[in-house]
Amino acid sequence: MSLGLFRLDDRVAIVTGGGTGIGKAIALAFAEAGAHVVVGSRKIEHLEPVAQAIRERSRRSLALVVDVRNVNQVEQLVERTVAEFGKIDILVNNAGASFLAPVEGITPNGWNTVVGINLTGVFLCSKAAGPHMIKQQRGVIINIASIAGEHGSVLMAPYAAAKAGVMNFTKTLALAWARHGIRVNAIAPGPILTEGFEGVLGMSGGEGKEISRRVAESVAMGRWGRPEEVAYPALLLASDASSYMTGTTIFVDGGPSPRH
Hints:
By secondary structure, this protein is α/β, with parallel strands linked by helices. It has nine helices and seven strands, in the order E-H-E-H-E-H-E-H-E-H-H-E-H-H-H-E.
């Protein structure tokens, strides 16, 4: 076996939500493996340092503002990438957002916002990148789901529903585009210590520490995961090492609690 199968030399990747957390870790891992990486999110101040870090690894990079719910912005992201690099080899649909609320306290606008970012955004980005991948008869799409899509979440119902949709859409798209040489897989992380997760759970102060402790106890390994521990499976899925994998979801969750 050649470890060269894990290389991404001169491939072109788009990573949405690429300015922080899991997206940042994936973007940097891809650059280390040889890819040129376009990072997109709603906040340019998060993107520019990542793009610079990619360039420092002797790879090319663009930092582009995009709201994945906006069709025009998504299409501009893809078209700018193709204009700059000539192709798209890998798309990572990582952009996500959520908030804590019981089901009875969720407004229609709150529901639509979360579903729009976490599910509709996956559809729009895949639809925009798809024709370019179909034309070249080659491509990889990686969707970042969540264990909430499998188990549900009492306080993040729209997020859990959206992530379940992502996992199903992953299977559907894999079936639809396999004949074009496009592989579509997903990763479902468990508790990963990112800026976004800390913000959702309000993990500052004593109460935050207690929440963090209880979450860690719900994991068999007894700890939170790190963003790079999601980036490594993403590298596998992006590379030729997973050439016979499509339509699957890899769970990166530290294992279920022994109490379960």
